[in-house]
Design brief:
Blueprint lengths: L2 E4 L15 E4 L11 E2 L14 E7 L10 H11 E12 L1 H10 L15 H10 L13 H10 L3 E5 L13 E7 L1
Parallel strand pairs: 1-2, 1-4, 2-3, 4-5
Antiparallel strand pairs: 5-7, 6-7
Helix pairs in contact: 2-3
């Protein structure tokens, strides 16, 4: 079994049945440890064989890709998955952000950089992130993420109600599981 995490954070994911995760990371990302595979995911094709991985995991990565490139990136994930392989993906749930805006209330207790601010700071931070981090370039809700996964060729697309394997973004997590 082969496992790949795209855009790993600071901490490695827990092995599955003793199998360690390989990682795909941008080579110029000094914020996190170097990946097993160092490559910018925006440059397609990736230097990875087709049909290689049984599980690909992406947590809060896809929203950092231009919305116009979402389906092409997901097609590349589809290409590297083995037949019957599974994609586990998490993105911010734009519906929660919009609800917070409409209610004029922060969507959760997350306080970026320790600021005690109003709901619009929370909304902006959740949509755009901060100037010193890679900006968000896409928004997703259930319907749109499922549509993008279908267009990329995935099937058996279901809401992932489990907590993320890695860093948990709390209430705004929108998780899906899809198969090749």
């Amino acid at each position: 079994m082969r496992l790949l995490e795209i855009g790993p954070g600071k901490k490695s994911l827990q092995p599955i049945d003793g199998i360690e995760w390989e990682t795909l990371q941008r080579p110029d990302n000094n914020k996190y440890p170097a990946g097993t595979i160092q490559h910018d995911i925006n440059i397609i094709p990736w230097p990875i064989e087709s049909n290689l991985y049984n599980i690909v995991y992406m947590s809060h990565v896809l929203e950092h890709i231009a919305w116009t490139d979402t389906i092409e990136i997901l097609k590349e994930v589809y290409r590297i998955l083995a037949s019957g392989g599974r994609l586990e993906i998490f993105v911010p749930d734009f519906n929660i952000i919009v609800q917070a805006f409409l209610k004029k209330k922060s969507g959760d207790k997350w306080k970026a950089r320790g600021y005690n601010y109003n709901y619009m700071y929370w909304v902006n931070a959740r949509i755009f992130t901060f100037a010193d981090s890679p900006h968000h370039k896409a928004c997703f809700n259930d319907e749109h993420l499922k549509y993008c996964l279908q267009k990329a060729g995935f099937r058996n697309i279901k809401r992932n109600k489990n907590k993320p394997r890695g860093h948990d973004h709390g209430k705004i997590n929108l998780g899906m599981v899809a198969k090749k």
